[in-house]
Specification:
Number of strands: 2
Distance between the termini: 48 Å
Structural class: mainly alpha
Strand order of the largest sheet: 1-2
Helix content: over 70%
Oligomer: single chain
């Protein structure tokens, strides 16, 4: 079963590269770009160093969170955001600072960041329903995708489920979701369910 994992990793990497080009100039382009950069950094490092490279995920998850913010917010708080980003990088790379296992730190910090992203998507979904008279299927798929990420990294940090089995299941779901992101752009009007 472990032999399938490298093929899943290559599939995910290729998929994210296609997604980022497909979502160019859309609202979520930088969110998808952060994930593409994470996989582009992680896979080569894993192949070169033959070790786990999950320490890349918290910094790139933070970048994905920032990518969803309003540009005015980013400009106003750029110094604080930079300090937080550097702290996330340092803690992710050196677990001697916290004295807690790197698997727990990386898994929990990534899960927390993606819970924040999940809440942002939920807020957007509720606002679009209340104020724009419609629900975006694209945002619903993003919410489902974020749930799989949170679950995957919580499993990674706790080891509650069988890590590799769950990884394969979650990654397979993410590939299906990725195909959706390749087919549909976030601004596709056909993906709006009008409320009555």
């Amino acid at each position: 079963m472990i032999k399938i994992i490298p093929y899943l990793a290559y599939s995910i990497l290729l998929m994210w590269v296609v997604i980022v080009f497909r979502q160019f100039r859309t609202k979520y382009f930088y969110y998808f770009l952060a994930w593409t950069m994470a996989d582009l950094a992680t896979l080569p490092a894993r192949l070169i160093f033959h070790s786990r490279t999950n320490f890349f995920y918290p910094p790139f998850s933070f970048l994905a969170l920032i990518a969803l913010q309003d540009i005015k917010f980013i400009k106003k708080y750029w110094a604080i955001l930079t300090i937080i980003f550097l702290a996330v990088c340092i803690i992710s790379l050196d677990n001697n600072i916290t004295g807690i296992s790197d698997q727990l730190i990386i898994g929990l910090s990534t899960s927390i960041l993606h819970l924040l992203i999940l809440f942002m998507f939920l807020k957007e979904l509720i606002n679009s329903y209340l104020y724009k008279d419609g629900v975006s299927i694209f945002v619903l798929v993003l919410i489902f995708y974020e749930v799989t990420i949170v679950a995957k990294f919580l499993d990674f940090s706790t080891g509650f489920l069988f890590e590799y089995t769950y990884y394969i299941i979650a990654t397979s779901l993410e590939i299906i979701i990725g195909i959706f992101f390749i087919i549909f752009k976030s601004d596709d009007k056909r993906l709006i369910l009008q409320s009555e």
